[in-house]
Amino acid sequence: MDTRFVRRLLRRQLRLVLAGAGVIGLFTLIVGLLRPPTYQASTTLLVNQGRGIAAPDYESVLMSQQLTRTYAELLKKRPLYEMVITSLQLEITPDRLMRNVRVSTIRDTQLIVVTVYDRSPQRAADIANELVRVLREQDRQMLSGTYAGDIRGLNVVEPAQLDPVPASPKIVRDTLLTLILGFLGMTGVALVREYTDTTIKDGGEAEQATGALALGVIGRSLDSAARFEVIDQASDPSREAYRILAVRLRGALSDHSARSLMVASAEPLTDVLAVAVHLAIIYAQLGQRIVLVDGDLRRPTLHSWFNLKGDVGLRDMLECTHDVPVYRYLIPTPVANLFLLPGGAPVPNPLSLFDLSRLRRCLQDVYQHANLVIVAAPAVLRAAESLLLAQAVDAALLVVRAETTHSAAAALARSVLDQASVRVSGLVLTGVPDDDVAVFAYGAHPSSMAQQAAGMHLLSSLSFNDAQRPHPASTPPVSALPSHSTDR
């Protein structure tokens, strides 16, 4: 069990353990407060075998112990309790009274302890003393009759006294005990949950499940970015993880001269949109002309990240039956060099619109206006059109969320993409604890200034191939790109 496992266990399961133990302890406390108190009173008897024996031998000792057990059994008989109920005028049945009395003998002695439990401390003492009194009275009657020559008897060593302290419930003791037991029990449950959890925890597990290289990790603190606020925050030093991803991804794309990239996940994740938006902003800030495409026509929401309208977009482009300039569908964003192709109005069944040849022709038209096209696609395992998008682009980036995406789902998504002959450039792991991000990216913990300088130096050295740059004459100026189009 390594330190990372312990940290992960504490981070993920500590709330469960504390909450479970707290609930059990609180339940015990409430039950103890609502439960009426029970008091106990005890009296001790000494059994005398007889007097006048100078040196007791083994047989006399054995007889004394047998006699002690005999008296203990007599204290458990029903007639004795009926006489006590009559004497004390108790409103209780003999069976109930017998359940409230405990008779025990002290090992290797001639002592008998009678303990009575009752809701009243005074009544408990009275019952204990009355039991002894009735038994001694019966014993004297027997000795005066058949066993008149016997000199054995019962002596009260310690009579029962009123004890105002309840014997139960012991609220403090019971609550602390259940807290400890609950903590131990919930810890066991947490260990079982952790060992049976099949979600991906770190970059190594992600790489093992998908067979793709982990190009970067995104910390949990970056998950709280609100849509269009990402534009202002993209240059913040805390966004260094996205810049590192951009560096590594650009290198992977350049190896295959890729001009289009699909960002997708195995199962629905909002992290897909966050990764696509951040990559587009970073590349655009470097002077590259980027077109960001919303490929999820079922729930097109990418335009809301820039606080723009997305009524017209990819759906209209695919439905159009005559030639309309592509730039009529592109929307300038607040980020220079970054244009958005929204999804348009939602489509219940977008698969009918996704003709592979038509989709490729549309992307070829978009290439005239961009150095790189980034497509935010729906989940690979949930939407069939995601595979058609993947076949139309040059490369794919798989998004995996730590402690959310299951290993089997990630592996199946990679298998599906491989079967469709889609080149997977790598993966990005999101939702990683912030303490683990720097270790993954740098292997150490340098200052944030050093991280920012290193990342920006690498990014500033990036450049797309000249062959990939659009010809200036073929690209309309920004002012010529309207926010929407109605032509079809």
What are the defining features of this structure?
four-stranded antiparallel beta sheet; eight-stranded mixed beta sheet; 16 helices; rod-shaped; disordered C terminus; 45% helix; 488 residues; 15% strand; alpha/beta
Record the SSE blueprint.
Layout: H1 3-34, E1 39-48, H2 58-74, H3 78-88, H4 94-99, E2 101-105, E3 111-118, H5 121-144, E4 153-158, H6 171-196, H7 203-210, E5 214-219, H8 230-233, H9 240-255, E6 260-265, H10 271-285, E7 290-294, H11 314-319, E8 331-332, E9 338-341, H12 356-367, E10 372-376, H13 385-392, E11 395-401, H14 407-419, E12 424-432, H15 434-442, H16 448-460
Parallel strand pairs: 5-12, 6-10, 6-11, 7-9, 7-10, 11-12
Antiparallel strand pairs: 1-3, 1-4, 2-3, 8-9
Describe this protein's structure.
By secondary structure, this protein is an alpha/beta fold. Helices cover about 45% and strands about 15% of the residues. The protein is built from 16 helices and twelve strands. The protein has helices at about 5-35, 60-75, 80-90, 95-100, 120-145, 170-195, 205-210, 230-235, 240-255, 270-285, 315-320, 355-365, 385-390, 405-420, 435-440, 450-460; strands at about 40-50, 100-105, 110-120, 155-160, 215-220, 260-265, 290-295, 330, 340, 370-375, 395-400, 425-430. The strands form two sheets. An eight-stranded mixed β-sheet has the order 5-12-11-6-10-7-9-8, with helices on both faces. The chain has a four-stranded antiparallel β-sheet with strand order 2-3-1-4. The chain is rod-shaped.
